[in-house]
Design goal:
CATH architecture of the largest domain: 2-Layer Sandwich
Order of helices and strands: HEHHEEHHEEEHHHEEEHH
Strand order of the largest sheet: 6-5-4-9-8-7
Strand content: 15-25%
Number of domains: 2
Number of strands: 9
CATH superfamily of the largest domain: GAF domain
Radius of gyration: 18 Å
Helix content: 40-55%
CATH topology of the largest domain: Beta-Lactamase
Number of helices: 10
Structural class: alpha+beta
Length: 223
């Protein structure tokens, strides 16, 4: 990870092999493990630090984490539902912080637990910003062929609008929305809000709009 971090434009496998002075097969296996856990990203043969590094370095980056938590508090108060901060770890999404709704009946999200990328609203935000080849490969292996075109269209809308919706696709009676915190065009994390269908149905679009505003605020915090 240090070798990748020192490379401003990312590092190729051959460069990592030379830097570490280790067999190519060993370095490749190590890098694959870091990609799978979200600490390193690969695009067109170039490796860069992945979004999970933000939370590995959490104590060293209080500005980002604190700003995200303040955003969660504002979202919970404004929407009266549970607000969450989500990161990508390999082929999973993980909630790393939340502010729960005070409603008696509310969505309670387990922290630090891997969840499928699709069809969660946060997962859709990450998936929408995957490199095309990686996105297509994920969709091919996780989405039924009959639904591929619809999913591709939905992800296009996510990129255009800046938020994603989940209308009971994960849990039938729970609706949610999420917006990515984009740092240099890549989602470092996502803000999300979820709650019971009965309360969320009429305010889902409004919640999505508020998420977009808060995500943009956090993205402007000095890194």
């Amino acid at each position: 990870m240090e070798a990748v971090a020192r490379s401003r434009d990312g590092a190729k496998l051959s460069e990592l092999v030379a830097t570490l002075d280790a067999p190519k097969s060993s370095v490749h296996g190590l890098v694959k493990g870091l990609v799978a856990t979200g600490y390193v990203e690969e695009q067109d043969g170039v490796y860069r630090l992945g979004p999970a590094i933000d939370f590995l370095l959490k104590p060293a980056r209080p500005s980002f984490v604190d700003a995200a938590h303040e955003a969660l508090k504002r979202l919970q108060e404004a929407c009266d539902e549970t607000a969450m901060l989500c990161t990508l770890v390999g082929d999973s999404v993980v909630y790393v912080d939340l502010v729960e709704s005070v409603q008696v009946i509310r969505y309670s999200a387990p922290l630090n637990t891997r969840r499928p990328i699709y069809p969660t609203s946060s997962g859709k935000c990450f998936l929408a910003h995957f490199p095309m080849r990686k996105r297509d490969a994920y969709i091919k292996s996780h989405v039924a062929p009959a639904h591929v075109d619809a999913v591709q269209h939905e992800l296009k809308l996510v990129r255009e609008r800046g938020y994603a919706l989940n209308r009971g696709e994960t849990v039938p009676d729970v609706l949610g929305a999420a917006s990515p915190i984009l740092i240099d065009g890549r989602p470092a994390a996502c803000l999300a809000v979820a709650g019971p269908r009965a309360r969320m149905e009429d305010k889902l679009q409004s919640v999505a709009s508020q998420l977009l505003v808060e995500a943009q605020k956090v993205a402007k915090v000095p890194q």
